[in-house]
């Protein structure tokens, strides 16, 4: 197993970073909060977890060992794979996650795309005695951004701020893509947070 990766940041994308180690570029899938701490050309050391599938080997990179441990523990819950575990940590930091599970806060857990009420209840039941109690201060959103209403708005806003945009810039971009989310709702579909985040980034880059 690869416990950590240390090298020069060769590039940062919407959901991953490439670290050059010994002339080899390793792609690490990371949350927006982790990506926001990385700058191309600078040195970085990230704890990692390798997910092995029949058709692929994927490295996930983390801000610290606490985030890595939470990622691996989340996957022991029924129905939680690496992508969903990473999504949970993108929205809720490890301590916020522990607080939500300890308080049986279904509403907070269902704010994560891909988690419904039954899924949240299952996670609480299976992990309540394993995640432990919060170790920090009172829970807050992953990026410190106050709730803005609809779950998709929170997720897109948090993702943009996590990537380094200001809260005001992120709010304007969220408003720019609100029509797309509204169209999905009128069609009876849940807004695709990933697609909305990409669309918001495009509007910000054009601006």
Automatic annotation (TrEMBL):
<keyword id="KW-0238">DNA-binding</keyword>
<dbReference type="GO" id="GO:0006310">
    <property type="term" value="P:DNA recombination"/>
</dbReference>
<dbReference type="GO" id="GO:0006281">
    <property type="term" value="P:DNA repair"/>
</dbReference>
<feature type="region of interest" description="Domain III">
    <location>
        <begin position="148"/>
        <end position="207"/>
    </location>
</feature>
<dbReference type="GO" id="GO:0000400">
    <property type="term" value="F:four-way junction DNA binding"/>
</dbReference>
<dbReference type="Pfam" id="PF14520">
    <property type="entry name" value="HHH_5"/>
</dbReference>
<comment type="similarity">
    <text>Belongs to the RuvA family.</text>
</comment>
<comment type="subunit">
    <text>Homotetramer. Forms an RuvA(8)-RuvB(12)-Holliday junction (HJ) complex. HJ DNA is sandwiched between 2 RuvA tetramers; dsDNA enters through RuvA and exits via RuvB. An RuvB hexamer assembles on each DNA strand where it exits the tetramer. Each RuvB hexamer is contacted by two RuvA subunits (via domain III) on 2 adjacent RuvB subunits; this complex drives branch migration. In the full resolvosome a probable DNA-RuvA(4)-RuvB(12)-RuvC(2) complex forms which resolves the HJ.</text>
</comment>
<comment type="function">
    <text>The RuvA-RuvB-RuvC complex processes Holliday junction (HJ) DNA during genetic recombination and DNA repair, while the RuvA-RuvB complex plays an important role in the rescue of blocked DNA replication forks via replication fork reversal (RFR). RuvA specifically binds to HJ cruciform DNA, conferring on it an open structure. The RuvB hexamer acts as an ATP-dependent pump, pulling dsDNA into and through the RuvAB complex. HJ branch migration allows RuvC to scan DNA until it finds its consensus sequence, where it cleaves and resolves the cruciform DNA.</text>
</comment>
<dbReference type="InterPro" id="IPR000085">
    <property type="entry name" value="RuvA"/>
</dbReference>
<keyword id="KW-0234">DNA repair</keyword>
<keyword id="KW-0227">DNA damage</keyword>
<dbReference type="GO" id="GO:0005524">
    <property type="term" value="F:ATP binding"/>
</dbReference>
<dbReference type="InterPro" id="IPR011114">
    <property type="entry name" value="RuvA_C"/>
</dbReference>
<feature type="domain" description="Helix-hairpin-helix DNA-binding motif class 1">
    <location>
        <begin position="72"/>
        <end position="91"/>
    </location>
</feature>
<dbReference type="GO" id="GO:0009379">
    <property type="term" value="C:Holliday junction helicase complex"/>
</dbReference>
<keyword id="KW-0963">Cytoplasm</keyword>
<dbReference type="InterPro" id="IPR013849">
    <property type="entry name" value="DNA_helicase_Holl-junc_RuvA_I"/>
</dbReference>
<dbReference type="GO" id="GO:0048476">
    <property type="term" value="C:Holliday junction resolvase complex"/>
</dbReference>
<dbReference type="GO" id="GO:0009378">
    <property type="term" value="F:four-way junction helicase activity"/>
</dbReference>
<keyword id="KW-0233">DNA recombination</keyword>
<dbReference type="InterPro" id="IPR036267">
    <property type="entry name" value="RuvA_C_sf"/>
</dbReference>
<dbReference type="GO" id="GO:0005737">
    <property type="term" value="C:cytoplasm"/>
</dbReference>
<dbReference type="Pfam" id="PF07499">
    <property type="entry name" value="RuvA_C"/>
</dbReference>
<protein>
    <recommendedName>
        <fullName>Holliday junction branch migration complex subunit RuvA</fullName>
    </recommendedName>
</protein>
<dbReference type="InterPro" id="IPR010994">
    <property type="entry name" value="RuvA_2-like"/>
</dbReference>
<dbReference type="InterPro" id="IPR003583">
    <property type="entry name" value="Hlx-hairpin-Hlx_DNA-bd_motif"/>
</dbReference>
<dbReference type="InterPro" id="IPR012340">
    <property type="entry name" value="NA-bd_OB-fold"/>
</dbReference>
<dbReference type="Pfam" id="PF01330">
    <property type="entry name" value="RuvA_N"/>
</dbReference>
<feature type="domain" description="Helix-hairpin-helix DNA-binding motif class 1">
    <location>
        <begin position="107"/>
        <end position="126"/>
    </location>
</feature>
């Amino acid at each position: 197993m690869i416990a950590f990766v240390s090298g020069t940041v060769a590039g940062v994308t919407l959901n991953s970073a490439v670290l050059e180690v010994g002339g080899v570029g390793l792609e690490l899938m990371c949350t927006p909060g982790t990506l926001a701490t990385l700058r191309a050309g600078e040195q970085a050391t990230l704890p990692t977890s390798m997910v092995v599938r029949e058709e692929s080997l994927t490295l996930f990179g983390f801000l610290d060992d606490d985030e890595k441990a939470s990622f691996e523990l989340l996957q022991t819950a029924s129905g939680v794979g690496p992508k969903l575990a990473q999504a949970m940590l993108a929205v809720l930091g490890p301590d916020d996650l522990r607080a939500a599970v300890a308080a049986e806060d279904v509403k907070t857990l269902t704010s994560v795309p891909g988690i419904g009420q039954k899924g949240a209840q299952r996670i609480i039941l299976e992990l309540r005695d394993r995640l432990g109690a919060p170790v920090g201060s009172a829970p807050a959103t992953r990026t410190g951004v106050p709730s803005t209403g609809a779950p998709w708005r929170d997720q897109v806003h948090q993702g943009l701020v996590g990537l380094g945009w200001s809260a005001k810039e992120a709010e304007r971009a969220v408003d720019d893509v609100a029509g797309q989310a509204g169209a999905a709702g009128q069609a009876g579909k849940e807004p695709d947070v990933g697609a909305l985040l990409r669309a918001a980034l495009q509007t910000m880059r054009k601006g």
